Model the fold of this input.
Amino acid sequence: MAKSNETWAVVVIHGVGFTQVGATLERFFRGVCENRRLSPVGGPEIHLLEHANITEGRFPMYMRRAKTQGEQPILFAEVYWGDISKSEGGISHLLLRLLTIVFHLRYLIDCAAAYPCDGWMSRCQRITLWLASWILCGPLAAMYALLFLFMMLQMGKIALNWLFETLFPSVSYTGEPVTVWLADYELLTFSNIAIIVGAWLYWISNARRLTWGGTWRYLLAWFTIDAFVIAALSLRSLLWADTALQVTDIFPTCIKCASVALLVTILLVLLGLAWATVLMIIDWANAAAYSAAIGASMVQLALWSVIVPAFAMFLFALPNIGDRTMSWEVRDLFLTNSAILLLPLSALSLTGLLRIIRFRVLRSRTPGRLIVHWTTVLALAIATIVGGVLYINEFINRVAPDSPFVVVSLLDIRHQIGMRPWAAPITASLEVPWIQLSIVLGSVALATGFLYSARTLLHIVMDVISHFYRLHVYPMGTIDHNSHTLQKRITHRVHRVLAEMHAEGATRVTIVSHSQGTATAVIALARADLDAQFDPHGSPTNLEAHVRDWLRTVRVDLVTMGSPISHLYQHYFPDRYPPFYVREGGVSIRNLVWGNWVGLVHSWTNLYRYDDFVGTTIVGDGDFPHTFPKNIPLTALGGHTKYWDHVDVIENLDGVLPK
Done:
């Protein structure tokens, strides 16, 4: 029973799965009030808090008030950061999230590869993986983006032709009106539009580089450069060539350039895999970091393999667009080679399904990993090697079919099957444009349904990757962890909410966090003690010192649920997340890298479920009579997201929650 003369503050830091302000706090607040027989006082309160020394406006703090049966005042406040990580719902946001994951993975790849970077071999691996990500997220992605814009402009031109002919049927046209007006200047017009669009979007993203803008600046820079090159080629053909270049002349060339860039990317990933294999053999102590770097690189390539075939199918199925811009030879090369890359994603999905069956069907009681499990990395490696070799074989077969290094082409096998009598009707039906378009739309609908069902997994992956976001990625030297701008902004919000609890007169604090919020809670406490927090512009702030001094005068209890700190961050990224305790002379002592934040915390309770693939136990000090933290497994299955309002969670928090 809490003393009646003290105000108890419960600070909630949400994880994945909730995107609205106050959604997490309301669930937790109702569960605690029902279980602990607290009486709500008033309704919800939303306070807009100012950022100290950070020019990003204000953010909302959702708060509820309650009291115990002994009239003890209780404050519930939420640290909301869903707007920073862009966790909105909806199909369009899920598709954007999948695309963003591909680009954000480069931050995680470099952070993992940078830790053991003390020898020439590890430096080579880091540079190799950086180059692969550099090509994929820059020149390759920009080429497809430019092709997509040109395709949209082609569709717009067709729509304008139809509109003019419909509105003015009495006017006699010599051919399609818009096509006649553009004449030889179609490609130059399209490329100039692309330059304007690319420069405008680059300006917007550069203004928002502290949040999401830095993700797209690199792509947009290459997009604008490609548009400049195409505009220059078009202008050159108009001035000095016999015939002007058309859009239909550019499409095949761009696709072949993209195929070459994709080939180089695959070769670099395979080279990085070879480096990682050798490094893990000779330096097993850092094997986790090596596997995380190459695993993330292979996942990036696998996710890219989803985007490319979808783009190709959509492009080729459009009447009057695909037929006018692509030859069948280019189509076959594009589709077949891209589809080969689906092998790594299939391996990733299969191993994930097997892990789910193990926990859901076989009821395993051993906490395990899902995405970062070694079996998943091994399956990814095998599938990437097989898919990469097949891609190289197909590429050489199209470029140099007489080469002695070429085996049977998959395209030849497909054509032989297509010549069979039973396959002729199917092949003929697939040539019909409306059937092709129906297949594309059906595939998009199925993919969208899959993404919607897997939205929680996408939220988890995105939140983890965004944790490593920084403005610049260079493959040389060590990483300054003050450069992780998104995490610093979230941490600053924690300090700001704690400062508000101090202003409300709180004399005891319980911090309850989930998933990614657990890492935020630990970093916020550590930074408050170290007094080393800087805003994105590099100016020091006194907010952390103020929070630290106050926390030293009150009791602080920390609760983490479904935390990935130990089995993910400390295991695969030990440079940024070193152990909380180290052993010297057989004695476990606090790791001074974290400061003395543990001294600020009176108790630490970690809850986890056996079927939670993201958060398990946290490795702390096992020498204490009661381990710090105290890891408590929950018997009920609920996965990674079902913590906040479950009775078994609240019942295991006696002593750290009011009643």
Summary: The chain has 22 helices and ten strands. The first strand starts at residue 8 and ends at 13. The chain has a mean pLDDT of 76. The radius of gyration is 28 Å.
